């Protein structure tokens, strides 16, 4: 997430009914013998979990089932206030003088949950609260790469506007592909505006539901990988001339250029 040379200490927070499973995750992390993993704190105590944290990835929530929408179910959303409150506590108690936290909200509805967190943790600067639309961004890159039969790493600069939900707008109008004769616009290479303006968009918008239908579980590997991409690019920056997508509560749009 922060490169191969950056040691990390993981603080894992879960709710008390999940404490045993959480300990199982800790055992697996130890058994994986990751060279840069310098410690694991597995806890159900929000203050212990938040103390000294620099980067917080909020995945605590309940994935939707087949046919569900990523809407805000009040009872479930309120759950996110638990970590929200804990961050407020951790910050206001000045548990650590140099407490700087960058937050990525993953749990759905991700944009709404980021907004809730902003309200309940006012001591976290607004610009430090983001939510995950990078998965949608990566999905758009993947669709273009499959369509053109090119390496996904040669496709760049799609944009995800709006929420991490079926109302988002995946935009390829500035996207390019690296070719042997230089960078070319995606539209020029695809040569099929009908596909780009319809099926491509709905495929990206509905991809989460398609994965739930196929796996009977919500996306896991791609979500985790895009969360790592999000944090890495946020902290370390994107390559010159490249941008990525993320949800920000500060701005009315989801596209950030991180130089
Ligand atoms: N924004 C995005 O692109 C994506 C978002 N998601 C969302 O991420 C969330 C997590 O998904 P999975 O990891 O598949 O679910 P999961 O059910 O495997 O794990 C969620 C964990 O969160 C814990 N939890 C629930 N409430 C909590 C709270 N208040 N504080 C701390 N921990 C809490 C649960 O006990 C469970 O261990 C879901 O809301 C899912 O919809 C998933 C994929 C992509
Ligand atoms: O669709 C879901 O519920 C999980 C998710 O956010 C995604 O895969 O995009």
Automatic annotation (TrEMBL):
One of its GO terms (molecular function) is L-malate dehydrogenase (NAD+) activity. Keywords: NAD, Oxidoreductase, Tricarboxylic acid cycle. The active site is at residue 164. PROSITE patterns: MDH (PS00068). GO terms for biological process: malate metabolic process; tricarboxylic acid cycle. It is an enzyme of class 1 (oxidoreductase). This is Malate dehydrogenase. It comes from Hevea brasiliensis (Para rubber tree).
